[in-house]
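Supplementary Note 3. Input sequence used for the single-chain structure prediction.
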Amino acid sequence: PQAVPRRFPVAVALLVRDATHRIVDLLSEAKAIQWLLTPYDERRREPGLVPRHPVVVAWIVPGTLFDDPAWPGAEAGMPAAAARLARRASAAQWLALEGIALVAFDPPADLI
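The predicted structure, written as discrete structure tokens, is reproduced below.
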């Protein structure tokens, strides 16, 4: 069968943070933003598509945030780059359940 285009209306709030921010603060900010913006969500609902979260919050953070071994997802003995990716993937999974999208990037050295 031929694919049929489908609309996925979404409202996304962006939080751009550096590695100095605590995760607990990012989580509380994200939840506060979702709580504050949800009453203003006036997107047209698509039939058969039930949004899990009225407002998605995207964290835009440096990838170095996931160098911390306290993040779950990496196994002992993994190379540093692989461990970072494993931690990012693990974090993305559980944050998605909270309506939080994760965008991790590696900034150029002259921006740090």
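Helices lie at 23-37, 80-96. The two ends are 49 Å apart (CA to CA).
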